[in-house]
Input
Amino acid sequence: MIAVFAALLIMLCALISCERKDKIPPTSSNDEVGEFFTEVSDSDSLGEFLAQFGLKAAQKPLSEDEVTIPSDFGEQYISYNKLQKKAGFDLSRFKGVTVNRVTLRGDNQRITLLIYKGHIIGGHLSTGEFGDSYKPLTG
Output
């Protein structure tokens, strides 16, 4: 009986964890921009998302691929997530999840966005040069 209860409890926790990742809020906020929407479904809505941050990008991506957010954040990912939090994102709730990474050409910079189930969950700005440090989407 105890084993059955424990198994049910484990399954319930797993369901809650999966549901938490699936229910992505349609908006987020940061000090610089205020509240902004995160849902994107096509290149037009992607452009509208970027406009919230005062950014523009070419419609055709430079690259698109999939990346898996580590289950355990090392020093590098802890630092990267601090950058995400400045822009109003938090990757810690997406540990172990595979997401789409899209890199776009902006004005004198590259814009990299992390997309999960039609929502922007993170991103950064860079020059695209080797060794360049990342900046939050808020600039």
User: Anything to note?
Assistant: The radius of gyration is 17 Å.
